[in-house]
């Protein structure tokens, strides 16, 4: 039996990382049980395939920018959890507050003063401590957001992306951190599919069946594009100012608003890829729109 050539894990081709391709992508090439040797051999064999999609290496600036977004997302989640915990403790005391964080912030200490006989001193201290955590998280989120906005002002690709309606510092920096200049995708359609904004397809017997969006890829980036789409849909009087305005008006007549938002998010993603890949700005005859 011929001796197999030993393939070291560090001999991975540029742009192909073992951590990214030792799972689903190289699973068909893995022989035997999972260990370092078999993983390295599977990676080497998969790298020889001409149609293999490799993971592009990120620059240090992209890694830093991506870290900022991840930290901000974690802080926002913690703030939401803190607010919900304050509401839960108040509900246990028989006190309900209107929805939205602003309503809770404005009425919290008034409630504590008026219901002092019903709320124990220990519970009051707990709620005040949670409120102080809330304020600290607000400061951290604001500081991280300001840093992201500063980066967007000095990054050329971000400036070009922000010419697209609905795209502001948050989306532009998130896109640049995730895909750079978009060279990993052959066309905007591939970028939209990577974000999970295309219908899930099930075809059999020559009959294609399209379902809901696939929701593959970056969940965070997909949510930002959907939010941007909702912002645009809130102002129908501005649609005529966009180059895709006629398409949007016709689609609004036949689609549910949520389905329309997903379709518009997909279009915005494809436009964003085109702007990145071609190094050009979007339609000059555009209307300023609140962006994310």
Describe the protein in words:
The protein is mostly helical. It folds into three domains: 9-47, no CATH class; 61-154, no CATH class; 157-278, no CATH class. Helix content is 58%, strand content 4%. The chain is built from eleven helices and two strands. It has a two-stranded antiparallel sheet with strand order 1-2. α3 packs antiparallel against α5 (121-154), α3 crosses α7 and α9 crosses α11. The radius of gyration is 24 Å and the shape is globular. Mean pLDDT is 86; it is low at 1-22.
Q: Report, as a whole number of angstroms, the end-to-end distance.
A: 61 Å
**Domain count:** 3
Rg computed from alpha carbons, rounded to a whole number of angstroms:
24 Å
Percentage of β-strand residues: under 5%
Structural class: mainly alpha
Instruction: Name the average pLDDT.
Output: 86
The rough form would be described as globular
Low-confidence stretches: 1-22
Q: How many helices in DSSP terms?
A: 11
Helix content: 55-70%
Give the strand order, joined by hyphens, for the main sheet: 1-2
Q: How many strands, which pairing sense, and closed or not: the largest β-sheet?
A: 2 strands, antiparallel
Number of strands: 2
Secondary-structure element string:
HHHHHHHHEEHHH
Summarize the structure.
With 292 residues, the chain is mainly alpha-helical.
Can you lay out the helices and strands and say which pair or pack?
Layout: H1 18-21, H2 36-47, H3 60-92, H4 101-114, H5 121-154, H6 156-161, H7 169-179, H8 188-194, E1 199-204, E2 207-213, H9 219-233, H10 245-254, H11 257-278
């Amino acid at each position: 039996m011929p001796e197999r050539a030993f393939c070291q894990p560090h001999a991975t081709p540029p742009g192909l990382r073992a951590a990214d391709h030792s799972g689903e992508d190289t699973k068909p090439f893995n022989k035997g049980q999972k260990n370092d040797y078999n993983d390295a051999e599977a990676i080497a064999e998969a790298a020889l395939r001409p149609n293999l999609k490799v993971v592009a290496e990120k620059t240090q600036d992209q890694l830093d920018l991506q870290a900022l977004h991840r930290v901000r997302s974690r802080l926002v989640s913690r703030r939401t959890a803190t607010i919900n915990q304050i509401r839960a403790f108040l509900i246990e005391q028989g006190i309900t507050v209107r929805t939205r964080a602003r309503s809770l912030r404005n009425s919290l200490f008034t409630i504590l003063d008026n219901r002092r006989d019903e709320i124990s001193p220990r519970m009051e201290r707990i709620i005040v401590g949670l409120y102080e955590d809330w304020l600290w998280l607000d400061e951290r989120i604001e500081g991280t957001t300001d840093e992201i906005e500063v980066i967007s002002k000095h990054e050329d690709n971000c400036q070009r992306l922000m010419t697209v309606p609905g795209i502001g510092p948050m989306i532009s920096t998130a896109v640049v951190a995730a895909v750079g200049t978009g060279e990993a995708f052959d066309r905007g359609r591939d970028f939209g599919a990577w974000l999970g904004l295309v219908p899930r397809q099930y075809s059999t017997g020559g009959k294609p069946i399209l379902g809901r969006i696939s929701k593959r890829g970056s969940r965070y980036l997909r949510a930002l594009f959907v939010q941007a789409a909702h912002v645009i849909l809130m102002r129908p009087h501005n649609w005529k100012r966009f180059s895709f305005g006629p398409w949007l008006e016709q689609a609004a007549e036949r689609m549910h608003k949520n389905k329309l938002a997903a379709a518009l998010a997909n279009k915005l993603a494809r436009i964003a890829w085109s702007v990145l890949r071609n190094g050009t700005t979007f339609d000059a005859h555009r209307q300023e729109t609140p962006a994310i």
